[in-house]
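Quick one, tokens below:
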């Protein structure tokens, strides 16, 4: 627990305004501190910290190690096996991929990955961020349009800002009718797309990282086909949060739906459920060549070296051998156990009726054949911090999510479930959340209302804050 208090104390210290102390400092540093003070004033200054769960002082309901391949050591064992099988490996790749950075092992692993996902080709890059900037800066041609879900990842936005596409149109999240309207707007305004000589690139994610909901991909593909019968609307699907978790052996949403031939480009990241680093872009030989020739983030960087590729292969070996299927299944079991535990808690119903807490993905969960490991817990503004303090002080690691990661007014806590969590941990999570909710119900129902009253954990943290001021 002392790790948790130390973490909170560090975070509190980091919120102290620095600008006023920098009056005589050089302009460059003073300006930087003043820019950071905007965050600090809002208690939104992020700090580096050592996660309490990594020190065994808290339960992990926040990391991306969803299959627990990292914490269980399975990925390390598979990686060491890869090293042992290739004792003469090179630490370096020797240059960028188109110069000296190509080598047999990376090509072999790419072929294996392409086969695993039922894709024509695979290209390994350094990260999902690099992958999205590569895709969106290199693939759209002048005259093309990008139509994208409003909640796509920041890396997609960064890629799009460098794209040659003539127009970019966003549509309401996961809304098939909104996609239809967006395509109609593009067809109306872009004659070369309407006549089929330019393309619409539709950008979606299979699992949305802050909402834990899933793209209605089949319906979207149907709409695109219907509206663009010449076949010039293509899909780019970011499978970052589906990799390892969703679909046969974790191959992703596109594979689960059997839509491999309907999707032009897929992105799989290896730093989340696969517990290593790097990313893979799947597509046709033309897509691969365009990425290697046009994407600055592929051309002007050193190709991934053997250790990175060996880590990726280790993860793929675990998936393709079927070793991760039991983990996928256990994850599903734990999420449903959380849903039933929280719904059965005597405080849950009232807390949700009063608007103190809501879990949008709880709705109709019994009707879904897949539960997402990302469970957003929505609450009132500021309450997300109070609940996080309560969880952290109870030995549960979770993080609040605020603007700009999510739109203003949509603050939440993002719970992440892991195959290595236990039923007891999940029950503790549900009861701890509901104990906090009971406290909030009491505060909101007290005769003098919620004004000025704060729950115990927030009191403790703000006390620490005052002491550190
Ligand atoms: C949807 C999505 N795409 C891409 C990325 C970037 O992946 P990476 O962390 O490998 O750079 C992330 C990471 O959070 C993500 O959530």
């Amino acid at each position: 627990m002392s790790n948790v208090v130390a973490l909170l104390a560090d975070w509190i210290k980091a919120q102290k305004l620095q600008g006023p102390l920098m009056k005589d400092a050089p302009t460059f540093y003073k300006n930087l501190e003043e820019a950071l003070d905007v965050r600090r004033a809002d208690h939104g200054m992020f700090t580096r910290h050592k996660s309490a769960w990594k020190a065994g002082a808290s339960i992990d309901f926040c990391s991306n190690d969803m299959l627990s391949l990292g914490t269980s050591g399975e990925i390390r064992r598979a990686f060491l096996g890869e090293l042992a099988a290739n004792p003469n490996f090179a630490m370096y790749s020797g240059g960028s991929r188109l110069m000296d950075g190509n080598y047999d092992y990376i090509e072999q692993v790419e072929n294996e990955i392409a086969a695993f996902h039922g894709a024509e080709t695979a290209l390994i890059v350094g990260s999902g961020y690099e992958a999205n900037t590569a895709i969106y800066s290199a693939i759209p041609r002048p005259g093309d349009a990008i139509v994208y879900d409003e909640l796509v990842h920041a890396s997609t936005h960064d890629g799009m800002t460098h794209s040659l596409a003539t127009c970019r149109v966003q549509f309401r999240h996961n809304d098939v009718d909104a996609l239809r309207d967006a395509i109609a707007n593009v067809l109306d305004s872009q004659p070369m797309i309407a006549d089929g000589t330019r393309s619409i690139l539709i950008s979606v994610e299979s699992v949305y990282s802050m909402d834990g909901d899933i793209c209605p991909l089949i319906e979207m593909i149907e709409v695109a086909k219907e509206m663009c019968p010449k076949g010039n609307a293509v899909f780019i699907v970011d499978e970052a949060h589906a990799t390892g978790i969703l679909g046969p052996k974790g191959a992703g949403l596109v594979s689960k739906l059997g839509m491999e031939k309907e999707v032009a480009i897929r992105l799989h990241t290896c730093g989340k459920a696969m517990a290593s680093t790097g990313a893979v872009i799947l597509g046709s030989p033309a897509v691969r060549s365009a990425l290697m020739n046009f994407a600055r983030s592929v051309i002007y960087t050193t190709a991934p070296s053997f250790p990175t590729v060996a880590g990726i292969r280790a993860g793929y070996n675990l998936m393709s051998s079927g070793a991760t299927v039991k983990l996928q299944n256990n994850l599903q079991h734990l999420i449903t156990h959380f849903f039933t535990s929280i719904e059965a808690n005597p405080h849950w119903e009232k807390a949700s009726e009063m608007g103190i807490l809501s879990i949008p993905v709880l709705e109709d969960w019994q009707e879904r054949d897949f539960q997402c490991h990302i469970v957003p817990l929505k609450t009132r503004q500021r309450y997300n911090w109070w609940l996080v303090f309560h969880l952290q002080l109870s030995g549960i690691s979770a993080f609040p999510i605020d603007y700009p990661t999510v739109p203003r007014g949509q603050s939440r806590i993002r719970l992440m479930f892991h195959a290595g969590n236990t039923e007891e941990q999940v029950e503790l999570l549900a009861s701890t959340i509901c104990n906090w909710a009971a406290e909030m119900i009491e505060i909101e129902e007290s005769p003098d209302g919620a004004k000025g009253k704060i729950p115990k954990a927030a009191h403790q943290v703000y006390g620490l804050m005052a002491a550190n001021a």
